[in-house]
Amino acid sequence: MGADIGVTGLAVMGANLARNFARNGYTVALHNRSVARTDALINSYGSEGEFVRAETLQELVESLERPRRVLIMVKAGAPVDAVIDDLIPLLDEGDIVIDAGNSFYEETRRREEALREKGLHFVGIGVSGGEEGALWGPSIMPGGSQESYESLGPMLESIAADYHGEPCCAWVGTDGAGHYVKMVHNGIEYADMQVIGESYDLMRALAGMEPAEQAGVFREWNTTDLASYLIEITAEVLEQEDELTGRPLVDVVVDSAGQKGTGRWTAISGLEVGSPVTTIAESVFARSISSQREVRSVTSQIFGAGITGAVSAEDLYGTGDARQEFVEDIRKALYASKLVSYAQGFDMLTAAGREYGWQLDMRTIASLWRAGCIIRADLLDTIMRAYDAPAGQQPVNLLLAPEFTEAIAECLPAWRRVVAAAATYGVPAPVFSSALAYYDSLRAERLPAALTQGLRDYFGAHTYQRIDKPGTFHTRWSEDRSETEA
Ligand code: 6PG
């Protein structure tokens, strides 16, 4: 009997996925560019299951049962292509190549097409949950052909996170759909973290609340509608004391957020498919501005740092009822902004489904994010319910699901107060503000886009449509200003 699956690329994510397969009863062939890493894995964890040691890709392939399944877990980009190029001559028709890294969906589409032409299956799978998730149960978002999922699906489902008996793994759509869904997951992850950051910043700046004290607030919030992994670990990070200085760890960490690119891709794709993912884009920009530390060190001197006006946090929301009400307002602003960012994420998935011909099922996607992944949250269960209705009767925007319409209405006054306070006292809250602007845009019966159209027609004869009759029109701005049908 050959091995059930081969894993190449045994850095921590690949190693943990391999161990997860083995723990679930599969025989796993292991390969890494440097054999030392393969041996180290077998030495440390060989007793966890059946492993086959392969020194070369050829040995790996030869050890596999047919159709062969080879999972690649190397750095996204050129290294993935390099491994694929080495694998192709070793494989036969019907074999399956799996890319479990955070690859860009367009690359996955390209690779899937190229391998399909050679009679091979290429499956891009989104995997979320970090190192622990990979080992104990990640959320898995597989793309590729439906046919390949028949052979691969049961294996993936057995290693995936389990949400009350249901695996957080299901085929989401052809070619790059899996990586696309994972990308949107990451975009939402960026927005989730940014709204948490804005909440922390406002509590600190305007209510004078120290990180350790805020840890208690986040812990409390984790028992509300906000219950989620990211809120839970925020409490842990905020109460962490720096070993060296005894100060809160957040105070000694450089305030410049890195990114590997998935959030940026989400924002770019949102622009491309015409879906206004403002919260995600703002979160990416918030990281960019955080990275401009040198500029900020100059501008903060010249513009003046700290809260504006002759006020102190103590006088604003620093004590008693004022503080309690402010904290509760922030909780609501956070929840409402989070709802908007999920609504935007699902809107972009809908638009991408149309653009790329994927039959994305929003209910299934929400179900995959309920456990194992970074954005896991109670909210996902509610989102699933919102998409319970048969296709065609589902809300066109998630915020229209009755439960969410009500929740937003309930949060709205607090949300407005928080955004107003942030603007009044000069605390940046880009996602709270842009989420509110998005909501108000959706609420508006008329947007100033009519004026934009008028201006475009004035300087560039770009034409416009009228609300009262069909057709395309142009005003002769530089002549007699009469209207003509274009
Ligand atoms: C996950 C994470 C994971 C990784 C991101 C972080 O779902 O397990 O999203 O994929 O942590 O790449 O991305 P940034 O480095 O861009 O924040």
Describe the structure in your own words.
The chain has helices spanning 12-23, 35-45, 57-62, 78-87, 105-117, 130-136, 146-159, 177-207, 211-221, 229-239, 249-252, 262-273, 278-291, 293-303, 313-316, 320-356, 362-368, 379-386, 402-425, 430-443, 449-460; strands at residues 5-8, 28-31, 51-53, 69-72, 96-99, 121-128, 139-142, 162-163, 166-167, 473-475, 483-485. The chain has 21 helices and 11 strands. A 7-stranded mixed beta sheet has the order 3-2-1-4-5-6-7, sandwiched between helices. A two-stranded antiparallel sheet has the order 8-9. The chain has 486 residues and is α/β, with parallel strands linked by helices. The model has no long low-confidence stretch (mean pLDDT 97). Bound molecules: 6-phosphogluconic acid.
**Biggest sheet strand line-up:** 3-2-1-4-5-6-7
> Uncertain spans, ≥5 residues at pLDDT below 50?
none
Query: Biggest sheet, open or closed, and with what strands and sense?
Result: 7 strands, mixed
Structural class label: alpha/beta
Q: Which hetero compounds are present in the coordinates?
A: 6-phosphogluconic acid
The beta-strand count equals: 11
Report the end-to-end length measured between terminal Cα atoms. 72 Å
Give me the Rg, rounded: 26 Å
